[in-house]
Amino acid sequence: MKRTTGTDRSITKHWRPATQAVRAGTWRSEQGETSEALFLTSGYSFDDAATVAARFAGEAQGMTYSRLQNPTVAMLEERIAMMEGAEACRAQASGMAAMTAAMLCQLSQGDHVVAARAAFGSCRWLVDSLLPRFGITSTTIDARDNAQWEAAIQPNTKVFFFETPANPTMDIVDLQFVCDLARKHGITTVVDNAFCTSALQRPLEFGADVVAYSATKLMDGQGRVLAGAVCGTEEFINNVLLPFQRNTGPNLAPFNAWVVLKGLETLDLRVKRQSENCLKVGKFLESRVNRINHPGLPSHPQHELAMQQMDACGSIFSFEMTDRKEAHALLDALKLIDISNNIGDSRSLMCHNASTTHYSVSAEARAEMGVTEGMLRLNVGLEDPQDLIEDLDQALKSIGR
Fold first, then answer.
1. What is the DSSP string of 137-206?
2. Rounded distance between C-alpha atoms, residue 151 and residue 60, angstroms
3. What is the distance between the alpha carbons of residues 326 and 317, in angstroms, rounded to a whole number?
């Protein structure tokens, strides 16, 4: 395969995000295809034994085995890295594969992690249940409070782990402060940026070390495949992450990589329109529910910080009903918006987090995180926002709101 200008960083570094999302990381075969080729192969053949030996020894470039390299996956990795402003990226089988790999590849028995209390349910399980099995301790904090980050540091603290905005409470972390603090103490920051992607927020620009993704969400954007990614320096990706990934195998399938490549081409358009729709829907709901957690609204206690770090509000927010019974009743009354636990989709989706995404988290941990029995999370899609508002209006009226 020949590499095009889409892989020449001296050229692509001057491209803006929307251009990178369409063009960056493009390879072309001798056929000159415009759409990225799909390489469905587990292995590769070689002209001679010396060639394969040199590749496995790292003395020559080229494919060896699809658990290590695949041309379609490599194109996705290059594109995400360029969009993120990272030196390198490794794709993963899912978002949680990305989070798990980003953590376990660098942690050992006796290490300590400081993690945000508000997080996706599986991320909290990773911190609360999985890491302790390997002798890795953690402290969970209210990540909105800068003082708590510094107070939680121990001599053996190796990682700060958080997402901003947080799922589903929409807590905002002060990226500049936390990344500066981590750098001062030699701590690695791992940021889950799935709610924004590089189209809205670029943690590396604030000093983050590692950015991890569920590419299943906004990057695909149409609810088709599972995928993940981890971005960072070449040193981290190639010397810390890659040995873990090579030997544990959380690899992304080429077909899934191809689907995400297609999704990235429209990411900029989708995210901006969904952010606009999300703000309109949020303004409608604000006076009709007990409480709304929407970073794009001035009522959000961290609205100014969110808008400093994010280019737009994103497509997701949460809000509070009185209790689980009322929350479920509202879900059941919807006629257009789907009940689903996914996010980032072009379709509007809503779920009750305490009984779905955070079901595996203990009631005590949910209370600590702020995931109440009345909380609902809404992903606003690409439908006409007025249709969404009318659906929410009739659903609220049907339950006496």
1. EEEEE-TT-HHHHHHH--TTEEEEEEESSPTTT-----HHHHHHHHHHHTPEEEEE-TTT-TTT--GGGG
2. 48
3. 18
Neighbours of 49 (CB within 10 A): 8
pTM exceeding 0.85? yes
pLDDT number for residue 9: 75
Token pair, residue 23, equals 């063009």
| 3-class SS of residue 304 | helix
Q: 386 by DSSP, 3-state: which?
A: helix
**What is the spatial distance between Cα 217 and Cα 214, in angstroms, rounded to a whole number?**
6
Helices (H) then strands (E): counts for the chain: 17, 14
The owner of tokens 């794009």 is: 296
Calpha distance 103→244 (Å, rounded)? 10
What is the predicted pLDDT for the residue at 13? 75
**With contact defined as beta carbons under 8 Å apart, do 200 and 310 qualify?**
yes
Give the separation between CA 8 and CA 24, rounded to whole angstroms. Answer: 8
Output the CA–CA distances (angstroms, integers) from residue 205 to 118, 217, 296, in the order listed. Answer: 23, 22, 21
> Once rounded to an integer, what is the mean pLDDT over residues 34-63?
92
- Would residue 110 be called left, alpha or beta, if left means φ above 0 and alpha means ψ between -120 and 50 degrees? left
Length of the chain: 401
Lowest-pLDDT choice from 11-25, 159-173, 253-267 = 11-25
Examine the pLDDT at 85 and tell me if it is beyond 70.
yes
Give the pair of three-digit tokens for residue 257: 């990589």
Structure tokens at 302: 């961290």
Which of 30-34, 74-78, 92-96, 342-346 shows the lowest mean pLDDT across its residues?
A: 30-34
User: Tens digit of pLDDT for each residue in 246-266?
Assistant: 999 999 999 999 999 999 999
In angstroms, what is the C-alpha Rg of the chain?
21
CA dist 317 and 379 (Å) reads 7
Domains of the chain as residue ranges with CATH: 2-264 (3.40.640.10), 268-398 (3.90.1150.10)
